[in-house]
Amino acid sequence: MLVVGAGIFATLGVNRIRVPLQRTVDQATAITERRFITVDEPEVPELRNVTRAMNAMVGRVKAMFDEQAGQVELMRRQAHCDPLTGLSNRAHFLGRMKVMLDSEDGAASGALVMVRLVELQALNRTLGRSATDRLLQDAAAAMIESSRRVSAGEVGRLNGSDFALALPHVDSLRDWGYAGDYVEAMWLALQHDTPDDWVVATGESHTVRELCELAFAQLGLDYREHVRHDARYLRPAEVDHLRGDSTKAREQLGWRPKVDFAALVKMMVESDLELAREEQWMRQRK
Fold it and tell me: Please, how many CA atoms are within 13 Å of residue 12, restricted to the half-sphere of its CB?
């Protein structure tokens, strides 16, 4: 009995040391993988000091990496971005355009939308430098949001008052859908008895031109006065017509899209208008 008892106590004693040491080893391994973890301090006094020092070192190393990452990001933004708006500067925008055109995976065609804020110098004299800068920043934010909603395009500030947006080919047919409908399809898929693959799509195709027509018309504008198509940016090959077949999801999951194309565009425009009103209200309060 004494031998058995001594063995149990010895095992417990070894575990009290082994487990904290293994956690310390895991901490060191995680640092080499740029993962920074802290662990609870053990009860063993000697190991408690080791763990405390290790946790402190992990915090310092993480802070050092974060500082270096911030410096790299700052250098990148200084080299590639317009300091006022955060958009790509002229050189970086043109470089990104070249990459987009040369990429085999990129869109085969597209449109380049040029935006000019007229009489910028007069605005600067009338409103003042700070108010004009805020106007430029708001314009840049609106263009970024538009680019994200329509495509994975590129937005840049070419000079003081000139901006550019690279958009997909206005006659390309795409299957546009509402994110809320797709989230519902994900939820229904999770409720299914067995895992499987389903295509989630509206089954309807509309052109970028149609989107522009509906969006600009909602504001009482003619998109042709604001969007320009440049044949120089056409690529020799493209999948001009994309449409998903969601028959399986409809039959097995009982899923149906509820928001059609026109309602989707209307929601997008109204959302942007509401955002613009909120920003205007905030500026007026300053």
Answer: 7
Contacts of 256 (CB under 8 A, 6+ apart): 250
Distance from C-alpha of 39 to C-alpha of 52, rounded to nearest angstrom: 9
Residues carrying CATH 3.90.25, the chain: 108-285
Residue 147 CA to residue 280 CA, distance in Å, equals 21
If DSSP states are collapsed to H, E and C, what string results for 51-111?
Answer: HHHHHHHHHHHHHHHHHHHHHHHHHHHHHHECCCCCCECHHHHHHHHHHHHHCCCCCCCEE
Burial classification of residue 141, based on how many CB atoms lie within 10 Å of its CB (0-12 exposed, 13-18 middle, 19 or more buried): middle
Rounded to whole angstroms, the Cα distance separating 168 from 128 reads 37
Q: What is the pLDDT of residues 227-245, one digit of tens each?
A: 776 656 555 555 567 788 9
CA distance 38 to 24: 9
Long-range pairs, 60-68, Cβ under 8 A, ≥24:
61/31, 61/36, 62/36, 65/34, 65/36
pTM: 0.45
In this structure, whether the domain defined by 108-285 belongs to CATH 3.30.70 is answered with no
